[in-house]
Amino acid sequence: MRYLIVGCGRVGSTLAKLLDADNHEVIVVDENPGAFKRLGQKFKGHVVVGTGIDYDVLKRAGAQTAHGFIAVTQGDNRNIMAALIAQRMFHIKKIVARIYDPTRGMMYRDLGIETVCPTTVGAKLIRDVLMEAPWDALQSFDFGKITSLTAVVRASDSGKRVSEFEQPGRIRIAAIRTGKTVRVAADDTILAEGDEINAIVAPDAITEFAQMFQVDKMPPIAQPAQKVG
Predict the structure, then answer these.
(1) Which of 100, 128, 153, 212 is the most buried (most CB within 10 A)?
(2) Which residues have CB under 8 Å from 196's CB, separation 6+?
(3) Can you tell me the distance from the alpha carbon of 106 to that of 111, in angstroms, rounded to the nearest whole number?
(4) What pTM was computed for the model?
(5) CA distance linking residue 229 with residue 227, whole number of Å
């Protein structure tokens, strides 16, 4: 696959190296030639000096044959402008833009441009670390109004039905993974220890969800016996 990345900062250069290591063809565009030093000597892709909001620069970078386009400059406006050029002038199917403003990100998603918001993602990761959350957070819908979470069923919850954990409008278990098998959850589905569940959780129910799937407390460590006599 051929990917065109606009912006060779920390995120852009790291993404470029990851895609390059996966043997994709990668082209990186940046106004600052010095930024390409971040790519390192092992980078096998191509670099183009210029602005990502210039049609001619993107054409010279091969946008017309790119399978994916990523805009990760430091400015929201520039990322969106570059993404719109890629969408409307080069008809690239897969486009992702980094947007720091969550509200603007939602607006541009309505235009068919996928956005990643470090503001929202970072805040949620910090929240989960603070809460010692026993789940993995997946991409949220509607910018934080509904979150998809995964958790593992404890031994103490084995044998319980899905309906015992669900709450109308707040917590809904959507799927269950048992080993290599994934199935859609039903109200009467019996859970087993080690099952991985995927749940859709409302913001006001996240704490309650965390309490449901807290890691069992470790038993007290036995003290060595004292010698008598």
Answers:
(1) 153
(2) 150, 151, 152, 153, 176, 177, 178
(3) 9
(4) 0.62
(5) 7
Domains of the chain: 2-119 (3.40.50.720), 134-212 (3.30.70.1450)
Pull the structure tokens for residue 229.
């006599």
Among 47, 104, 112, which Cα is nearest to 77's?
104
* Residues in contact with 110: Cβ distance below 8 Å, sequence separation at least 6, in sequence order: none
Neighbouring-strand partners of residue 98:
116
Residue 139 near residue 147, CB atoms below 8 Å: no
| Full 3-state SS string of 128-163 | HHHCCCCCEECCCEHHHCEEEEEEECCHHHCCCEHH
Model confidence over 1-56: pLDDT tens digits? 999 999 999 999 999 999 999 999 999 999 999 999 999 999 999 999 999 999 99
